[in-house]
Amino acid sequence: MKILLIGATGTLGTAVHKTLTSRGHEVLTVGRGGGDLRCDLTDLAQITDLYDRAGQLDAVVSAAGDVPFKPVTELTPDDHLAAFRGKVLSQIELVRQGIPRVAERGSFTLITGVLAREPIPTGAAASMANGAVEAFVRAAAIEIAPQRINAVSPTVFTESLADYGDYFPGMPPVDLADVAQAYVRSVEGAQTGQVYAL
Prior knowledge:
198 residues, alpha/beta, 7-stranded parallel beta sheet, Short chain dehydrogenase, SDR_fam, NAD(P)-bd_dom_sf, SDR_DHRS6-like
């Protein structure tokens, strides 16, 4: 399959790229500052240009999304808009603009996260964004068939515990290799409208 991988140079994107290419897929990597193609997903015109450069695809995979982390009493309307633009609208646009660019039975895989179901202090904007993406996936699945859409919703990565583990007390970590397998399940499987929680 020809797969467009967004956020390919990040921690998760690197693992997903390695896993998909090891399975024989042709993967076009996309990042803000690196990869085969460059794109800032918060600029909707750049998403259009990205699809023009990528050509016809079998799957679109997202491993990118930016949200601010602050106490809820300090979050401003601009912070909430930044979370919406950085993780929700950017991925919705990947789907909306990608529908005519992806094969009839192709797929979209978006990224959410544990904070949609297990909130933490300073994570309200992230929880809002993740929940919105998951709701969108379920709704879009009933309209875009036979194309498919799913989301991967991991907890903190085992490989990132040293940096972020204190923010997720008591939450079991997940190995990046296991998260990458959820992307394989979404891309190569037959399910749609699913949120793969890890």
